[in-house]
Specification:
This protein has helices at about 1-10, 40-45, 45-70, 75, 80-85, 120-130, 160-165, and strands spanning about 80, 95, 100-110, 135-140, 155. The chain is α+β, with helices and mostly antiparallel strands.
């Protein structure tokens, strides 16, 4: 296997010795208004951002159509695209059900025909499992997001209940280690 790897991978052209130093933490980040302090946003590729945005746009349109068809045009105008506003409540869209009750929608999108698992951020799972949100928290799973103007949307209501009842499983997969110094906590 090693020989195959060496054959496929071009060896790095290095000259001299690499610079090796002891780690020094970076200065604390300044929090910017309207932006998340999470670096996970920066890890997403341009393509995945396009797919995610296409899914969110499809869900926004679907939610507005649903409310207008239910005679709730005023509520359709009150839908908030949280992620587009720079808000990070733990979901992408705040909408309403046909009874006028607020619902919280986290959108997960793909260009494929199926979604077999999704990554939830710590903030998303915290919001989904919050007793105040659980009953009104939804995952909207959008497939074929870039292939059609109205991609299929599958709705998973109350993902916390699905996990809590043992029907679906959830496990931590990533821990992010910030290399910036934390500001000391004030008493």
């Amino acid at each position: 296997m090693e020989e195959l790897f060496e054959w496929v991978a071009e060896p790095a052209k290095t000259t001299g010795k690499p610079s090796i130093t002891t780690f020094l933490p970076r200065p604390a980040k300044k929090k910017q208004k309207g932006f998340s302090n999470k670096s996970s946003k920066g890890r997403r590729s341009k393509e995945s951002l396009k797919v995610g945005n296409a899914g969110e746009i499809a869900v926004l349109k679907s939610e507005k159509d649903k409310l207008r068809e239910a005679g709730l045009k005023d509520l359709a105008e009150q839908i908030v695209h949280e992620s587009a506003e720079g808000n990070t409540p733990g979901w992408d869209i705040t909408s309403f059900d046909e009874n006028g009750e607020k619902i919280f929608i986290e959108v997960k999108s793909t260009t494929s025909k199926t979604i077999t698992s999704v990554d939830l951020t710590e903030n998303e799972w915290k919001a989904a499992s919050n007793p105040e949100n659980r009953e009104n928290y939804y995952l909207y799973l959008v497939t074929e997001a870039l292939k059609t103007d109205s991609p299929p949307i599958q709705i998973l209501e109350n993902p916390y209940d699905w996990v809590n009842s043992g029907k679906l499983g959830i496990r931590p997969t990533v821990q992010e280690l910030s290399l910036h110094l934390l500001k000391p906590k004030t008493k």
